[in-house]
Amino acid sequence: MITQKIGMWGNSLGIRLPQAITQQVKLQEGELLNIVIEDNKIILTPAKPKYTLEELLKNASSAMQHDELDWGESVGEEIW
Asked: In the chain, what are the domains?
């Protein structure tokens, strides 16, 4: 368990997250967190952005596409 002191950050209260914790959950500066209150506990979880297919493919071009790969004959119970 780690204990942190609450401090003022502008007009809000804030805490610093220790490096050991941010490294463990792979948080980086600028990432978003979801904040939920459950049973009078504050729960922080990394926010996973939801991308649309258009957003994921916005920089894709036909030059980035490749031909179908031939993996050879089936060696088990694969269905081709």
From this structure: 7-60 (2.10.260.10)
What sections of 11-70 are H helices per DSSP? 19-24, 53-56
**φ, ψ dihedrals at 52, nearest 5°:** -85, 160
Report residue 6 as tokens. 């609450």
pTM for the structure as a whole: 0.55
Instruction: Quote the CA–CA distance of 49 and 32 in Å, as a whole number.
Output: 9
Distances (CA, A) of 15 to 8, 34, 78: 9, 15, 53
Distances (CA, A) of 1 to 21, 47, 65, 69: 11, 23, 49, 51
Predicted confidence (pLDDT) per residue in 40-77, tens digit: 999 999 998 888 999 999 999 988 988 888 888 888 88
